[in-house]
Design goal:
2 copies of one chain form a homodimer. By secondary structure, chain A is mostly helical. Chain A has helices at residues 2-17, 21-30, 33-41, 48-54, 57-66, 69-78, 81-90, 93-102, 105-114, 117-127, 134-137, 151-161, 186-191, 198-201, 215-224, 245-263, 278-295, 297-305, 307-312, 320-343, 352-385, 391-425, 435-458, and strands at 144-145, 170-174, 180-185, 209-210, 229-233, 239-244. In chain A, strand 2 (170-174) and strand 3 form a beta hairpin.
């Protein structure tokens, strides 16, 4: 696929140079909205408006939705009012609301001025929901049916009203008061007898989400139940919109990216890498780096207070990085596993004792394995091969490091599994509790353990 | 939603105890397949077969698909041959193939024996595709139309054949030789005139995937193009199956989980946390822990060879954990960002110079910020407040640590962004190049830099 786009790219450049606009229009109208948007992103800005104006109206709106916000803003600024109106008319309300959220105020004003009064109402309705809520990602364009309709009437209604609807595959059965009482798919309607009543065919056990529910819950619901769309209801159970599977997939990808960013101690952003400037990237990364650097003062204090004893057996210093690295890795293995399981709903807070018990057992066998391998390795490599340990130190120092490993891995896994669970309980984001945060705690604890065990065994 | 399931849970337990089977059947048949499967997972094994047998045939098959493999195997072992046949008959071929892939050989034999000859052919057909290929996740149940059909004939055909098809919302237009030449949605058909020809309405620019394409590409395609399903074609362009959006979402979630596991140095598994035993978890985690522990030997060697100089200015030791921690964090920020961008197709190998140039600038301003803050902090906290630094050492040691920070962050971000890109180019998985691996390299480099700068400035 990639290759096709690149080839088209070259062709289009040539045709543009030769001003073969008719051929260009023909090529573009056979292409997919997403592919055209990708093509535009790789293109010099100056060429985009000309090509964009060649697109058929409906395709133009689809392409517009797929483009990144910089290109959208650039195009809007170049549009005449009537061109802008054409695009806005073709946009579905939720797409328009999404675009408006990202635009500067003067552009927003222009867009809303061009929208039809009805569309403006829909867009404003969607804009009032909090960011990341079901309301903010839903579309108000859906097909609803009455329970008393026959299959024939229902299909007729769909034919009549379906053109503008984002999805017509699932229809919603609502009472006169707007209450959602059932759903029915086109599949069911098409496969049923024409005079059957909708209320006899509809599924009455409707899974729905509230307008204020978090978008992550919405995406999970769509994904768990294999839905093409999930209905969104207000507090009185009235149907106000639907979230379609394509928007749910976008949310899943976006939320996962945010989780991954948090795990790597980066401030979250939904902007793609290529769209963030150098200073913006710096702003996303520096807070955690600073915080973690400052909090490493504790490990510094611990080392300083054991300075004299370290000087007595200076060989101990050589193993600090290994101990802290292993502790960090063991801890992040546990924390990342637990964070992912929490976000996939595989476990919840009530499983905390099960999780701790399991991690304790895993950490003990991990710790013992590491300790045994390390003991043998230190004697063979650090003592015999490299001669970094004095003969009288070889066994006791290896023993100190190995014992510390067992305790460090245990503590790391214990903290690594407990903190995300507790965060979840306190309604904090578990992902923030991931590796870097835990590493700092584990670093401090493992150093303390190291020096205490060293003091006890080496009598320093 | 969670709460509802728990309430039903209690109700069902009571009704079971009171043997009110009719009521139970009524309750279960109003529930969703996914919810019933979740209910069974939280239930004692002994109760499941009784409840499962109460389900209507079609629902039973749906519930079966949603259950975890242990419960599936447990149920199959308890089924009579005729019960097993009923379930297998209701399963779609791709679901059956998925289940068979997870089952032990004797269970597989029993399942295949019970399948109808036609179903067995479909299942065997699906099983021959390599794991994680488009062929392995596609379903062979789709609706195809001929280009010469009218809209009326097409809708009739859908009504006649659609019952068993996994999705009827998108229909595929194929020639007599099986070649896929277009797609058409039910939406288009329903909104068109009855005597219009399919070939005049169909979309001819069809995006499809090959049977051997990686499932991640398939999922990306469905997600990028907002498809409900993507057609799968063989090397001759003949339509052999489709992958529906719900399966694509499962792949997205699964692949992301694997990426996250790799980033946290865990061997990948698609088993949920609660289903992996202690020894299995140990097996997934210990290889990387061992490898990273052993590779930390390098940092040990570096420290040992600077042992005497360290003894001269023992205060230097106190800042080793902070330097290594900051290097590790800076590196994983870059590597995780790049890995995610690669997997979302935001960047590719040809962008490597853009990426390196950007990361170099980001790392310089990050490094300088950290260095300035650290310099002030060391003078205020470590020297004035804690007295860990001798007066004549305060400025030079702070300078050494701060300069090392700049170099470390630069190296960390450079390696962090380069390794995943190079891995991608070499067709290795970029995610494996994430934090722990990079940390080990950065640790060694930053220690070397530290000691060289210290030697130069402190004249030790």
């Amino acid at each position: 696929m990639e290759r096709n786009i690149i080839t088209v790219d070259v062709t289009i450049d040539k045709l543009l140079a030769e001003k073969k606009y008719k051929t260009l229009r023909d090529i573009l109208s056979t292409m997919n909205a997403y592919d055209i948007a990708m093509l535009f992103e790789d293109m010099h800005d100056s060429k985009i408006p000309l090509l964009f104006r060649m697109l058929p109206k409906e395709l133009a709106a689809d392409v517009f939705v797929e483009m990144d916000e910089d290109t959208q803003e650039f195009l809007i600024k170049g549009f005449s009012d009537s061109e802008l109106k054409e695009i806005v008319d073709e946009l579905s309300a939720d797409d328009a609301a999404d675009i408006i959220e990202e635009m500067p105020a003067n552009v927003v004003k222009r867009i809303l001025r061009q929208a039809s009064p009805e569309a403006r109402k829909d867009i404003n309705g969607l804009l009032k929901y909090p960011d990341s809520s079901a309301g903010s990602i839903m579309t108000t364009e859906f097909v609803y049916l009455r329970p008393s309709m026959t299959v024939e009437e229902a299909i007729k209604r769909i034919r009549r009203t379906g053109v503008d609807k984002e999805t017509i595959y699932t229809c919603y059965v609502v009472q006169n008061n707007g209450k959602l009482i059932g759903i029915i798919t086109i599949k069911t309607l098409l496969l049923a007898e024409e005079d059957e009543l909708v209320e006899n065919l509809m599924e009455t056990n409707v899974i729905s989400v509230g307008t204020l529910d978090d978008q992550e819950l919405v995406a999970q619901t769509v994904s768990n139940y294999d839905f093409l769309a999930v209905p969104v209801v207000d507090t009185e159970g009235r149907l106000v919109g639907i979230v379609t599977v394509d928007d749910a997939v976008d949310v899943l990808v976006e939320e996962t990216t945010e989780d991954i960013q948090k795990m790597a101690a980066i401030a979250t952003t939904d902007k793609p890498y290529t769209k963030t400037g150098v200073f913006e990237t710096w702003r996303h990364r520096i807070p955690w780096l600073l915080l973690l650097m400052i909090s490493a003062t504790f490990t510094g204090i611990i080392i300083s207070s054991f300075e004299e004893r370290l000087a007595a057996v200076i060989a101990l210093t050589a193993f600090i990085p290994m101990l802290m690295g292993t502790g960090g890795n063991a801890g992040s293995q546990a924390s990342v596993t637990i964070i992912r399981s929490l976000s996939l709903d595989e476990i919840e807070f009530k499983d905390i004792f099960y999780v701790i018990f399991k991690e304790c057992r895993v950490s003990l066998i991990c710790g013992i394995t590491l300790a045994v391998v390390n003991f043998v390795k230190m004697l063979l490599v650090d003592y015999l091969l490299l001669g970094h340990l004095k003969p009288e130190q070889a066994v006791p120092v290896s023993l100190v490091v190995s014992l510390t490993l067992v305790v460090t891995v245990f503590v790391a896994k214990f903290i690594g599994c407990t903190l995300p669970m507790v965060a979840k309980k306190l309604h904090l984001d578990p992902a923030v509790m991931a590796s870097p945060f835990i590493t700092t705690i584990v670093d401090a604890v493992s150093l303390l353990v190291y020096f205490f065990i060293a003091t006890a065994i080496l009598h320093i």
